[in-house]
Amino acid sequence: MITPMSAVLFDFSGTLFRIESTESWLRAVLDEAGLALGERELAEAARALEEAGALPGGASPGRIPDELAELWENRDRSAEQHRAAYTGLSRQVSLPDPALHDALYDRHRTPAAWSPYPDTSEVLRTLRERGIAVAVVSNIGWDLRPVFREHGLDTYVDAYVLSYEHGIQKPDPRLFAVACEALGADPGDVLMVGDNRHDDGGAAALGCAVHFVDHLPVEKRPDALRPVLDLVAAAPEQPVRNGQG
């Protein structure tokens, strides 16, 4: 028997929102500090930061330094570990002022650093109109609620389940269970939407259906969330999987 879903869980970064480019991130922090780099130097520094994976929500690190390996694996369990992991990666890159590494981390936590995907508002609004409960389930080390408020999307979210607030990170099914409980939903009636097959796919162990979208720049992904509306309206009994990662 096919039954509609009662709730949807969304990942944050790469699913509903996308972080700014590494160059925009670095430029904003340099401007705030009253520092200037030539365009070539700025581009080179941004490229080095991107290769290091220093921007949360950006490119994955090309290599994790041995001294950061354990911290990196557990970075989303607390605010302190998250900051230490990413500033540790940032410090692999030489910048004009050592204080810039913490400033870069602080910048990525601001609403100005994030943009919703073009269809995020439409999809969240439509789910609300249909009476479908929504939770955001994120591996993160800081409070993302201000990002949703700043972009006028908080009214469409019923619960936020953030890894650092629970000391649990995806793919641990317990984090998805917290979200289902917060929404009063049976996992079998819940759809998890994310961009990471490993982390977000952990919801399947709880019995949730799972749908994946691509982690692409905002301008290159105009409507990947819209299929969620059809999946929620008529979801199969087995977990939904999309081959895109």
The quaternary organization reads as single chain
Biggest sheet: strands, sense, closure?
Answer: 5 strands, parallel
Strand order of the largest sheet: 5-4-1-6-7
Number of strands: 7
What amount of the residues lies in strands?
5-15%
Form type: globular
CATH class of the largest domain: Alpha Beta
Q: Specify the CATH homologous superfamily of the largest domain.
A: HAD superfamily/HAD-like
What is Rg? 18 Å
CATH architecture of the largest domain: 3-Layer(aba) Sandwich
Number of helices: 10
What is the H/E string?
EEHHHHHEHEHEHHEEH
Task: Please explain how this structure is put together.
- It comes from Streptomyces spiralis.
- This is Hydrolase.
- 37% of the residues lie in helices and 12% in strands.
- By secondary structure, the protein is α/β, with parallel strands linked by helices.
- The strands form two sheets. A five-stranded parallel sheet has the order 5-4-1-6-7, sandwiched between helices. It has a two-stranded antiparallel sheet with strand order 2-3.
- α1 crosses α2 (39-52), α1 packs across α5 (100-108) and α4 crosses α5 (100-108).
- The longest helix is centred in the first third of the chain and has 14 residues, at 39-52.
- The chain is globular, with a radius of gyration of 18 Å.
Task: Supply database-style keywords.
245 residues, alpha/beta, Rossmann fold, 2 domains, five-stranded parallel sheet, two-stranded antiparallel ribbon, HAD-like_sf, HAD_sf, hydrolase, hydrolase activity, Hydrolase
What is the structure about, briefly put?
The chain is of the alpha/beta class.
